[in-house]
Design brief:
With 313 residues, this protein is of the alpha+beta class. 44% of the residues lie in helices and 15% in strands. The N and C termini lie far apart (79 Å).
């Protein structure tokens, strides 16, 4: 043994292992990519499932062996992305997924650029102003500004990242009014939205009621509700449409106590709402080259989609 080698061993130095062969490294990368893909697929299965999903259903839906599905779920649980509900044993997403998304969204360009526009509308209206963006077949609250500085006001009890009920909110009706009628009604029928509070007396009682509200909003260019999603609260909203694709990408809403946000007051602040939507539309156009849009699923009709048979509650 050479003097240099002996010194290295006494110091605890270890020579690096010989480089792996290229084909072994390639095989390892392929295995890792497949594992990641399956993990993401499992997470997708859990999205929107408030009551969780049993392991067997996840396995069947993805066509994976139950042993492999269990290993993936165990890893996701260890990493804090998934937890098991008791006593059902179903798997559900933790808030870590939501937190990652909201942290990213908080730094995204469109929400940052929208803030001063929303602040101005909030001050003009004196009410709560919110921006929502579409995520595939649902709407998500992404930004809000409170315009009321004193006295009676409405502070929503939902945080950013919550899914918006489509059938009973001005935001939902406004967004749906910019979609083809068949698709709009299909989305309403399919949504199963848990209610965080008692609904108002003007809550729609049938799919026909929702369809009538959508038609009215489509004709006048904006939606309005009074004591629909919540008792004592009124709201108005306009859809945000991508000028390039014509796709409805979100909505802007104003909400407040019904005693303050009356029909007359809505018409007074309607021009300010229109201006805000136009400016946000310009921002969306300017950013169109920086973002990729998720293609919408093919439209289904009443004849092909059984979800038309229910309102979704």
């Amino acid at each position: 043994m050479s003097t240099a080698q002996g010194a290295r061993e006494r110091l605890g130095c270890v020579d690096p292992p010989p480089p792996r062969r290229a084909n072994h490294r390639k095989r390892w990368i392929m295995v890792a990519a497949g594992t990641l893909s399956r993990g993401l697929a499992v997470l997708s299965c859990l999205v929107g499932e408030v009551e969780g999903v049993p392991l067997a259903r996840i396995s069947d839906q993805l066509g994976l062996p139950r042993s492999a599905t269990h290993r993936i779920l165990a890893t996701l649980t260890d990493e804090g992305f998934v937890f098991q509900l008791k006593p059902s044993g179903n798997y559900a997403l933790t808030l870590r997924i939501v937190g990652l998304g909201l942290r990213h969204l908080a730094t995204s360009t469109i929400t940052g650029l929208a803030k001063p526009v929303l602040v101005r509308l909030a001050r003009t209206s004196g009410q709560l102003v919110r921006l929502s963006l579409a995520d595939r077949e649902q709407l998500i609250w992404v930004a809000k500004e409170q315009g009321a500085t004193s006295g009676l006001r409405y502070d929503a009890d939902v945080d950013h990242g919550h899914v918006i009920p489509l059938d009973s909110t001005a935001t939902g009706i406004a967004w749906l009014s910019a979609l083809p009628e068949d698709r709009a009604l299909r989305l309403v029928a399919r949504q199963e939205q848990p209610r965080r509070h008692p609904v108002g007396p003007e809550f729609p009682r049938s799919l026909a009621d929702v369809a009538a509200r959508i038609r009215e909003a489509r004709e006048q260019g904006w939606a309005r509700v009074h004591e629909s999603n919540e008792r004592g609260i009124s709201a108005m909203a306009m859809p945000l449409v991508d000028a390039y694709s014509g796709e409805a990408i979100g909505a802007v809403s104003i909400a407040g106590p019904s005693i303050l946000l009356t029909e007359g007051r809505m018409r007074e602040i309607l021009p300010a709402l229109r201006q805000t939507v136009a400016e946000l539309g310009d921002i969306a156009v300017a950013l169109a080259g920086e973002a990729s849009c998720t293609p919408s699923p093919p439209a289904q009709t009443k004849a092909t989609d059984p979800s038309f048979e229910k309102l979704g509650r």
